[in-house]
User: What shape does this take?
Amino acid sequence: MQSLTNRSVVVRKREMSFMEKLYLPAILGGMALTIKHLFKKKVTNKYPEVKRIFAPIYRGVHVLKRDEQGRENCTACGLCAVSCPAEAITMVAAERKQGEENLYREEKYAATYEINMLRCIFCGLCEEACPKDAIYLTDRLIESKYDRKKFIYGKELLVEKIDERIDISKRKKNYTMA
Amino acid sequence: MAKVTIDGIEIEVPDGTTILQAARMIGPEVAPPAMCFYSSLKTSGGYCRTCIVKVSKGSEKDPRPMPKLVPACRTNVMDGMEVMNFTSPEVVEARKGVTEFLLLNHPLDCPICDQAGECHLQDLSFENGSSKTRTDFERRTFNKLNIGLHIQLHMSRCILCYRCVKVAEQITDGRVHGVMNRGDHSEISTYIDQAIDNDFSGNMIDVCPVGALTDKTFRFKSRVWFTKPVDAHCKCDKCSGKVVLWYQKDEVLRVTGRKDQWGELEEFICNTCRFEKKKTSDWIIEGPRHINHHSVISANHYEKW
Assistant: This one.
């Protein structure tokens, strides 16, 4: 049969020489390689003690931002949900009542806001679609869980706490309008 | 009959047809946008100036061009007239200016507005507007006014197209609202905070090109692109009963009239159909409504679901 390429090699079963039959040089060569790696710089990190530095554009768990006065930015416009290719976001809007002006920035707010983290592909389109500066992807990771239902993150997990703000200034730089 | 050429396409139309209607007969590729003109409402049009076109040849008898751009909805065709719409850079530029003026005082609250997604002003600014505003001034705002149980008025969003006034005048029995004050201070208002409660007053919602008049029963319930439109009809002794139901899951969130290609109601529907029949059992379902795939309403759903 004619070969398709000229790269084929005919395999010959050759008798091993005396040195090869000893196996020792081969073993020593292998050991040398192993020991050499002991003195090389490690590529892994000791995770809980040492944390890897994320790229500034890393896309991890989302955060729903508040403004300087602590009011929620999100107005449940639904643009993140319609832009989401994985259809991971759902929300229910509600009208702001009198006396809630310090809680929500706009007349309308998200009464429930859920992201299914198992569906989410962390593409960042929601962040790009958001007209209200409300949703950002952060450098935080999803905790592993045993229950699938716990991966549906509601507002209690997504909205940043007033006293522990999440810094997104690094990401914001990437989204300045031209 | 009059022969008229719009953007190089010739069509023969009956005498007395306006340029806008002739352009619509040809199709959407030459039809100018219209914010205030409404074919089923008499004397509508002539306010917004978005439909301005250039008449490069007046008629066969008098071939001189018209000196200025003319509103297509208020200009009748003449035999041998030549009209330029999208082919004229002058018209495109002027329309961009008109759009900028309409947006001068229009609030940027599309994320909150219930009309977003089916708003004609959104479409207009998407097609003809610039992405930035050049004004430094505060936008005009108005005090909130309660005009009844079913209709929510957001005066700051109004572009003063007068369509709702004409609906009240021509469709309902007795108009209780109108445009007060003049110029920059003009506002839609009722006579001494009277409630609008006519049998056909709900049509003002559908007729409104922006989100100035919206359905209170649908207020903040959902966004239009999360709802699925379904054609349905019922027996109604007041109107034709032909409507569109907007579903979210199994729930009818909103009932509207059927709008044609130009965003105009095919038939006006009564308030009972619009506001009170919100159960599937009230209706005979005809099937899913066709939505242009350029519309955001068609996002994430398909023609057959």
Notes: Chain B touches chain A through 15 residues (CB under 8 Å). The CA atoms of residues 117 and 295 of chain B lie 7 Å apart. The two ends of chain B are 46 Å apart (CA to CA).
